[in-house]
Every structure is written in C-alpha cells, then in structure tokens.
Amino acid sequence: MSSGDKNLEDEANRATDLLKGKVVQQVFRHRTKEVGIQFTDGTTIFIDHQPTELDISIT
Fold this sequence. Notes:
The protein is an alpha+beta fold. The chain has one helix and four strands; from the N terminus they run H-E-E-E-E. The protein has one domain (3-58).
C-alpha cells in the first residue's frame, strides 16, 4: 500500500470515528461541486469535488 493510499485510509477512519452514531438533520448544496451535511448535534461535514481529488471537512 502506498503512503497516499494509507493517508486516504487514515482519513476515512478518522471521518468514520467522528461521524459514528450521528443523526442527519439536513443535507444542503452551497456550490455545484459541494455537498454539506448537518447533524443534529451541530456537526457539519462538507464534501467538495476538486478536479483531481475529493476534499472532506468536518466541523
């Protein structure tokens, strides 16, 4: 497994841990290439499509 693949796996595992058990309140679109998901506890995840990658931000 390359270091890039390992980083993607680590990022996916962190996102799984942060979002485990959360309940979706709403899904929204601010931009054509972005999806936002807000959870009932106030946590929000933004998934943004870039030309060569997928950017994930959890706040």
